[in-house]
Structures are given as structure tokens and as C-alpha cells.
Specification:
Elements lengths: L24 E7 L9 E5 L5 H13 L14 E4 L2 E3 L16 E6 L12
Parallel strand pairs: 1-5
Antiparallel strand pairs: 1-2, 3-4, 3-5
């Protein structure tokens, strides 16, 4: 870890701290191998939000116009929190699934690799 020595006291509170989101947390969601979406979507949701609601409502709103969306077998989806594989329970909340502020949830849909397998 690199330490920075400053000439004067350095007090710089983060402007995107969870306290600044009125009871919500930022959640980044990326569909791997689907570059039609060039960056993760970011959602501001209460930590009590059930993961099933995120899939059925929020992720559907973000991703459903991709032709692969309707073909997803949700029982086969692989989930990652950052680079760490996780098992997410759609009946549990973000908090109960261990998903925190500014976490990046990535999902991989085996056999669905973008339009005509192009990654797009």
C-alpha cells in the first residue's frame, strides 16, 4: 500500500459515499459477453430490495431489448461479485446476499454469447 504524505491535513470525504444516497446503494450490473451494453448499468436501490425484483424488473428494463435476454436459463446463470464467484438467492435482499454499496455484479449466461455468438 502506498502512503501519501501531504503538506497539510487532508480531509476529503467521498462524494459517492452510501450516506449520500438517501438510504440507497449503488449497484453496478454487467452482462458478460454482451458488448451491446458497453458499460455496466448502475442502479440506486435500497439494500432491502429482493434480488428477484432486481432481475425481473430492473435488469429486464436494462437488458431485455437484446435478443438473448428472452433465452436466458436463469438456473444456469453464473454470478460474480467483482471477480469473486457468488451464489445469489433471488428471494433474499441485496444486503442478505452480501451485496454492498458500489459492488459490481457480473452475470454469465452459458451458451448465450451475444448476437450470433459475436459477443455483441
Amino acid at each position: 500500500m502506498t502512503l501519501l504524505k501531504t503538506l497539510a491535513p487532508y480531509n476529503f470525504p467521498s462524494s459517492d459515499a452510501v450516506e449520500n444516497y438517501a438510504g440507497r446503494q449503488l449497484l453496478y450490473i454487467n452482462w458478460e459477453r454482451h458488448r451491446m451494453f458497453s458499460r455496466p448499468f448502475v442502479l440506486a436501490l435500497p439494500p432491502e430490495t429482493p434480488f428477484g425484483e432486481i432481475i425481473d424488473t430492473h435488469m429486464s428494463d436494462c437488458f431485455s431489448y437484446h435478443p438473448d435476454w428472452a433465452q436466458i436459463d436463469w438456473s444456469m446463470v453464473r454470478w460474480l461479485n467483482g471477480s469473486r464467484p457468488v451464489v445469489l438467492d433471488r428471494n433474499k435482499s441485496l444486503a442478505d446476499n452480501g451485496i454492498g454499496h458500489k459492488d459490481l455484479i457480473r452475470f454469465i449466461t452459458p451458451g448465450l454469447d451475444g448476437i450470433a455468438g459475436s459477443g455483441y
